[in-house]
């Protein structure tokens, strides 16, 4: 599911309100009456598609009478020039929904495309590519959905979705070991406790406190290899910080289980997507 229905509806309504303001002035002046039209949405570069259901929801909200037909599916690898959707109905409604629908498509497809590049780069290793909470406020469900469309996996959806002890928790609590032990003591039974470690001493403390998962943060490749050797299967391993396409394969080869990448959602380049509108050939 792309997002909970109520969340998707609220996101679409907010985006349309932002773009339409008090109405599409240009369209209202040029076309005082309904005009039959059809539109084609196409991608203009090779990409992994994500966001078609959001685009459809946009046009449905603008005008329930519009007929939206998907010509591809989210998660598809599409080539430049591929038509991914056709919409038929009042041209005024097509114009009103155009920019908002394309904004969602280009942004979410960009996330899916970048994610797929990372996933492909580590193929053959045991490492899974994860996202983070570094998402656009209000769009987290959609952006994490786009990561899944690109073949990645989701880390926590929100702060109530798991336990991750980070540097500021440790600074406030006094020590890494104490923070892990205290969390284990109070956490609901069976819930995994993950802790961030920035050096080998913190890795040793995490192991001593019996952390279930250790996040190796901003370590060099030699440090990662030493940390993985030290952990030796006693905890799951995750890497974050400084991960790029040109080093992710080497990071994965160190033997870690997870690689979390904030850039998937906060820095993915938008995919070039366009929509062409023409008068409808249907004269009925």
Question: Which key features would you list for this structure?
Answer:
elongated; four-stranded antiparallel beta sheet; 12 strands; alpha/beta; 19% strand; 284 residues; Aldehyde Oxidoreductase, domain 3; 11 helices
Compact overview of the structure:
By secondary structure, the chain is an alpha/beta fold. The chain has helices spanning 5-20, 25-30, 52-62, 91-121, 140-149, 167-173, 176-186, 200-208, 221-231, 248-253, 263-266; strands at residues 36-43, 47-48, 67-70, 77-78, 83-90, 128-130, 163-165, 193-197, 213-217, 236-240, 258-260, 273-279.
Structure notes:
The structure is a single chain. The model has no long low-confidence stretch (mean pLDDT 95). Helix 1 packs across helix 4 (91-121) and helix 3 runs antiparallel to helix 4. The protein is 43% helix and 19% strand. It folds into 2 domains: 5-114 and 269-279, Quinolinate phosphoribosyl transferase, N-terminal domain (Aldehyde Oxidoreductase, domain 3); 119-266, Aldolase class I (TIM Barrel). The chain is an alpha/beta fold. The chain contains 11 helices and 12 strands. The strands form 3 sheets. Strands 6-11-10-9-8-7 form a 6-stranded parallel β-sheet. A 4-stranded antiparallel β-sheet has the order 3-5-1-12, covered by helices on one side.
